[in-house]
Amino acid sequence: MPPTLASVVRNTALHLTVLAGTDHLERQVRWVHTSELDDPTPFLEGGELLLTTGIKLGKTASRLQAYVHRLADAGVVGLGLGVGLSHTEVPQALVEAAAQRGLPLLRVPEATPFIAISKAVSAALAAEQYEAVTTSFEAQEELTRAALGKDGTTAVVRRLAARLGGWAALYDGSGALSAVAPDWAARRAGRLAAEVDRLRRRPAPSSAALQGRSPGIDTADEDFVVVQSLGADRRPRGFLAVGTEDRITPTERYVLNAAVALLTLTLERSRELRQAEERMGAALLHMVLAGEVATARQVSAGVFGGLPEGEARVMVAGAGTGPEAAETLSELGDRAEQAGGRVGERLLVSREDGPHGPRLLVLAQDNGAAHRACLGAVEEHEGLALGVSAPTSLEDAGTAYAQAERALAVALRGGRRSVDHEEVGAGSLLPLLGEEAVTAFAEGLLRPLREHDRTARGDLVASLRAWLSRHGQWDAAAADLGVHRHTLRYRMRRVEELLGRSLDDTDVRMELWLALRAGEE
Question: What are the PucR C-terminal helix-turn-helix domain coordinates in residue numbering (predicted)?
Fold first, then answer.
């Protein structure tokens, strides 16, 4: 740490005496400045121990008080007055003003040159910098050895916590806690979920600093917390949080930065290796979809540890054609892989460019971690849509892929976040009638009847609805309307005239019925 006023005063070779501000000697001295100006503040940055003989200060209480106020407002940490020249002793008014502002005031005897004080502080600052460099180098070696060991990232987190004298936690790209040290810090690390989630939505690298009693930290804790995202290509691969009792010192900041660099390298891996793994996974997925399951099993056993077990689902995600679509889908793929990796669940992922924009294909265990992660992700991202197949065996994955594509098409047309094949295959067509194209068709088809009803007698739209709902039974439909069946027959002939279509045509009846229902959706 930088030298403090207390350490300067304790230097017996300087023979300094504290006359005021004894309660503030813990202030750190970042430089020593000598000035005989009545107002030296334009030349100060804050954190200085200011030395003066007081030649231009005068002896009136008002001038001395104004001088002290200027120094305190400028962030001066202490004032040293050299006696024996313009002042035989430190003026009492100066002592009282310094005490009032809490500014440490030091008496510098005539035998102590100002240069001696400057040398003492400079030596202490140099020692602090040397210690910071040495400590940082040792910590970097220690963290590097930990990263190369069998425990990898967990060992780095453990060593970092010990170096900082606090706690450290590592989260994966989805924000889930993956390592923490010491063990008792798991609860504190868990409370940072909201802060990690905010960083997850920002390009990496980014960071946030939280002080005790800040949002995300229990009010009983007084930790100083730093959260840092880990990633080299703007997409966070993970997050590191550290908590300490006091603010992190510059030396500790070097140690933290070294840990961030090592963890980033570990999580990122080489770009070529990652791309090769993605290509291999995509190739295996397409082998399964093509029905070559036996070959895919044989290949994946030595590379991916095997294929998904039990019933699986095929999921196809789309995010439009905007510039951020590919990045959004890539993040979705990362979340699925991370969710599956945490529980040892096998899955296959393929990122592709299609005629309607980029697509993400996922083959994962039915209702498994990756399946749930995909469903959760689409609820968080505006514009992201997901089509999900029915549960299937790997041998029928090709059929499941077609199901997922149809489900995605329904989701995109209807503005929905996700659609299961069960909704498309076993549900009703009526929810699909609310789409704009169908609504426009219905309005155009029924417009002549609606215009007639507004200007002439006879409710043709209601009559047509009743007649179609009764499957063309005249008596039953007329009874529903409360009219004679001859009146209903007249109205239906009028409908045919206005539409230019025959109600004897089954296709015409079907279109009219769907048009009427579309107007109700």
Answer: 460-518
